[in-house]
Structures are given as C-alpha cells and as structure tokens.
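Write out a record, fold above all:
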Amino acid sequence: MIKELAPRDEIVLATKVFGRMRPGPNGQGLSRKAILSEIDNSLRRLGTDYVDLYQIHRFDPFTPVEETMEALHHIVRAGKARYIGASSMWAWQFAKLQHAAELHGWTKFVSMQNQVSLTYREEEREMIPLCLDQRVALLPWSPLGGGKLTRPWGTQTKRATTDRYNKSMYEETQGNAPAVVEAVEAVANSRGVPMAQIAMAWVLQKPGVTSPIVGASKLSHIEDAVAAEALTLSPQEIEQLEGPYQPMDVKGFWGGGLTLAIGTPLDRCSRRASGWSKQQDRPASARRLLLL
C-alpha cells in the first residue's frame, strides 16, 4: 500500500509502541524486549525497512527509563527508525526520559504528541513550555476536541451515537466547553468559513506546533485542515476564542504512574491499551498535517 502512494523517501511514516499487541507480560509496554519485538512487527506489517518517526504511546511506569531509551537508541542506530518521539505524559516524566538519553549519549525525542485544542489547554502549563525550551516539535492530537469544535454545541451526528467515546461528548462541560464552542462558531460565522477551519487554525498558530493529528473520514475533513493552514487569526480573534476557557482536570495519560488521569484504574489499562493499538501503523503525510 505504501509503495503505491508515493516514493518511500517522499513519505513521512510514523508508528507507535506501548499498547497491548498480544497476551502476556511482554505483549505491551516499553521494555527492551517489547520495543525490539514490536518495531520488527510494525516494519513487517507496513512492508518497509524503516519508519521515519517511532513514538512511545505513553509513559511506562514499570520499566526503567534507561532501559526504554537505550532500546529506542538501538533501533535508531540499526536504521529501523530515523527519529523517535513521545506522546501524552506528565512533563516530569518526559524530562526524565530525555535526561536519561542525554546523560548516556543516546538518541533523544524530537517530538511530543499531546492533546491540544481550544477545549483542552492544560498542556500549556508545563509540557508545551518544556518542549519549546528544548526545541521539541508538537504533534497535537484531537485538535478539534473530538469533533466538538466543528459544529454548534449539542449537534448530534452518527458518530456521536455510535462511538463509545463520543456518546458522552456533550456531557463533558469542563473547561467551559459550551462557551468555547460558541466562540468558535461566532468567529467562523464572521469569517464565513467552517468551524473546523477556525479550530484548526488556532492550533496551527500555537508556537511549536508542526503537525496536528487529523482524523479524516471524509474528503471535506482534509480540505478543511488544508484550508486552515492558510488562515491567519488576528490577535482579537484569538482573544475571543481563548477567553471563555476555564482550567479543567488533566486527562488522557497515566496519572502519577498508577492510574490514568481520567480515572481509569490500573486493572483496566490493558483494555484501554487494546483500544490504543488499533490506531498503530497508519502512514502520515509528508507535510504539516499528520493523518490517522
């Protein structure tokens, strides 16, 4: 499939490691055994001999950071990955991983895939400033707030009634989400463009952001994402969009190493990890917009 899209050198291909891929203690996580096994499995499934970006999906509190970073360094040295990246975690965990790599002369992460949108801005407290200081690129996931920012608040769609995560979308009002969505709608109406373009343009204008993750199931989703790249919001519009937001609970990653920040107990993590792994091994575009 990849060979049919474009010459390999013109494709930026990313995949992840961490989620449960098979039963047993070595079927998930960031141990040396798991990492070295899963990169080979990914390359076989993808039909290529290297990936451009190999990312850890979450922090693994059960594996020493030195073991994880040395294994990732081995993959880069072996030519199986060009670069390595990380995804949602506490800023102190990311700093700990980076410090271990720097201390031993191993490959460091070049990117952080974290949740950033107008309805979730908690990453602005620590992770984003850390990445800007360390010159680590940001690859935000859920830049449209799971779809909330693409339509007036309360609008029902097929996905909202069938997707287990989106069924309760409008029950989540932390962060003053209804007012944030209303602000996006107002700016979009004044511009005469879809709400999705406004929400994506805001993410693209955040310092450090290089490649937002775009979940596209329709051609219009890609068209809106591309159009957003050419849309520049004014300082007044940014103030209007950001004004309603209120601080909310941190969510989307491991909390303190023992529970998920969204409240999922440890004994359910394997089931959550199984859901994460379904998004693995899908190619990314070679430009700013990373498609899953």
The chain has a mean pLDDT of 86. Residues 52 and 82 are 5 Å apart (CA to CA).
